Amino acid sequence: GAGVSQSPSNKVTEKGKDVELRCDPISGHTALYWYRQRLGQGLEFLIYFQGNSAPDKSGLPSDRFSAERTGESVSTLTIQRTQQEDSAVYLCASSPRDRGFDTEAFFGQGTRLTVV
Amino acid sequence: GQNIDQPTEMTATEGAIVQINCTYQTSGFNGLFWYQQHAGEAPTFLSYNVLDGLEEKGRFSSFLSRSKGYSYLLLKELQMKDSASYLCAVSNFNKFYFGSGTKLNVKP
Fold first, then answer.
1. Buried b (16+ CB within 10 A) or exposed e, B5-27
2. What is the distance between the alpha carbons of residues B69 and B61, in angstroms, rounded to a whole number?
3. How far lies A69's CA from each of A45, A78, A109, in Å?
């Protein structure tokens, strides 16, 4: 596709259930990021993938959060045993970092997660 | 740690000029980005500074002083559609660190 695609766009889940969020980056983009944005707040870094290198997981808030990416394609962010505090918009972004460090990130529309 | 500060909210009048400031203290620095985010939408790229000075792109300009850890975004000839949140982000090698964003309200 032309842009970063995320699914689902909205997800309502019960506390304690697991959820899986999907991100399809722009074709050819080697870098992929996940961010969390709580209502009225800025973007909180979660995890970064670059090609086949080990991901940078330093932003994951707890061991309930995990993410995978196969090569330079789709990524999934999984949240286990969801809590109400996990309610937020989860944004995925990709960038063509093979052109250098400082290229802008292109964001998807996000997945709005509501834990009830 | 990473610390990026922006004012929470600003209000300006259509046709006027507004300056949104950003100060940062980060463990590393490659460049500074500004993004625009309309309510309920994804952030979109506005500008990028890697060297000190002013970068101009139409109605939008961005300034950087690396020695002061300071940047600003200048919006001229404000339009109603400029009402949005403006996010300052520091690039540190492989990561972007975002501020909390400044919500700009443009009034007629």
1. ebeeebebeeeeebebebbbebe
2. 17
3. 17, 12, 19
CB-defined contacts A:B, below 8 A? 54
- The whole-angstrom separation of Cα A61 and Cα A77 is 13
Residue B38's closest chain A neighbor by CA?
Answer: A109
Q: What was the pLDDT predicted at A72?
A: 80
CA torsion angle for B74, B79, B80, B86 (degrees, to 10)? Answer: -20
What's the pLDDT tens digit per position in B18-72? Answer: 999 999 998 888 899 999 999 888 899 999 999 999 999 899 999 999 999 999 9
Chain B, 33 to 92: residues with Cβ < 8 Å from chain A are 33, 41-45, 48, 50, 87, 89, 91
A7 touches chain B (CB under 8 A): no
Residue of A104, A107, A109, A112 to mutate for B, most B C-beta atoms under 10 A: A104
The first and second tokens of residue A4, run together, are 């970063």
Contact A102 B41 (CB under 8 A): no
Report long-range pairs for B53-61 (Cβ below 8 Å, ≥24 apart): B60/B34
